[in-house]
Amino acid sequence: MKNFALIGAAGYIAPRHMKAIKDTGNQLIAALDPFDSVGIIDSYFPNTDFFVEYERFDRHIEKLRRKGKQLDYLSVCSPNYLHDAHIRFGLRVGADVICEKPLVLNPWNIDALEEIENETGGKIFNILQLRLHPSVIELNKQVDEGPKDKVYDVDLTYLTSRGHWYYTSWKGDISKSGGIATNIGVHFFDMLMWIFGDLKENVVHLHTHDRAAGYLELERARVRWFLSINYDVIPEHIKESGARTYRSLLIEGQEFEFSGGFNELHTRSYEDVLNGGGFRLREAQKAIQIVHDIRKTQPIGLTDNYHPLAKLPLAAHPFK
Q1: For 240-275, what is each residue's pLDDT tens digit?
Q2: Per-chain mean pLDDT for the chain
Q3: For 33-43, how does the pLDDT look when each residue is reduced to its tens digit (9 = 90+)?
Q4: Cβ distance 186 to 102 under 8 Å?
């Protein structure tokens, strides 16, 4: 049984990490979050020591270490801009680190983290759960076994509506979240490169408060992509079902079905790490580079190969 600690216990994604730790037969010995709305811990590890102050959490981990109770893994679910610092903390206290996506905001952060890995002997793992989705694995196999000179036409659409709270939170601050392309799109870009090969061209058509859209040319795919948190752009039949999220991957005009099968992917990710696998720093680098470039590129507007949903009206920013 391994000892885990968790930074970012009050966030949306933290329960999936708690479940993964429990499902793999391990224990959560400490958790940290500046917000104390963490009653969800009781569903998994009611005896976990919880802290709202980093200094007390740090002291507790050190006290346990001196008593012979070593922290084996630190799970990082904090806001994106803090991942780098919290990963460093985990390595310094002698733990391996499992970090939620995006691993970091800037590609050069990976170089610095690799140096600390080498200094400490610790390992950093990134959650890239779509690579473990059964349907995605099968698609990767089909493309790999298909004609080597085939270049696929792909449309990626991911719509996950968010309320006004989003703009007040750190997620609405591009310096903290990296913007929409980073916050909700990085794992899709990773998936596409894993299947269709490395990037050849990266064009940004739009990058606003409520959406981002662009075109990627990969070794074996031409990809039009559209990401949005605007409820109004969700197709009507999806709204009628009561859902607020829509994901679609069209390949050569055919819908690739991967809407289900997401609930257990964090547990599979943890199993992979604990069994000697896992996705390390360099495997995350290409997608981090793409979203960094999207963030820094001046959008060209709706020209050439833009995603058809990109022309739908923008939502008004609730605080401007």
Answers
A1: 888 888 889 999 999 887 766 667 899 999 999 999
A2: 94
A3: 999 999 999 99
A4: yes
Whether the CB-CB separation of 73 and 94 falls below 8 Å is answered with no
Q: How far is the C-alpha of 91 from the C-alpha of 113, rounded, in Å?
A: 9
SS3 call for 69: coil
Angstrom distance (rounded) from CA 160 to CA 162: 7
Common-topology check for domains 3-126 and 130-261+281-311:
no
Task: Measure the CA–CA gap between 117 and 281, rounded to whole angstroms.
Answer: 10
Residue 300 CA to its chain's centroid (Å): 26
Task: Supply 151's token pair.
Answer: 């270049």
Lowest mean pLDDT among 50-64, 125-139, 231-245, 255-269: 255-269
Phi-psi region of 74 (alpha: psi -120 to 50; beta: other; left: phi over 0): beta
- Residue 39 CB-half CA count within 13 A: 1
The kind and range of the H/E element at 44 are none
Name 243's Cβ contacts closer than 8 Å, sequence gap at least 6.
234
In sequence order, the β-bridge partners of residue 74 are 5, 97
Instruction: Check if CATH label 3.40.1190.20 holds for domain 3-126.
Output: no
The pairing of strands 3-7 and 73-76 is parallel
Nearest Cα to Cα of residue 86 among 48, 115, 113: 113
Q: Which CATH number fits domain 130-261+281-311: 3.20.20.30, 2.115.10.20, 3.30.360.10, 3.30.540.10?
A: 3.30.360.10
List, in sequence order, every residue forming a beta bridge with 222; answer none if it has no partner: 153, 217
Spans of all domains in the chain? 3-126, 130-261+281-311
Q: What are the DSSP E strand ranges found in the chain? A: 3-7, 27-32, 49-51, 73-76, 96-99, 124-126, 152-160, 199-207, 211-218, 221-228, 245-251, 254-256
Q: Do 207 and 180 form a contact (C-beta atoms < 8 A)? A: yes
Roughly how many angstroms between the first and final C-alpha of the chain, as a whole number? 51
DSSP 197-232: -SEEEEEEEEE-SSEEEEEEEETTEEEEEEEE--GG
Q: What mean pLDDT comes out for the span 149-162? A: 94
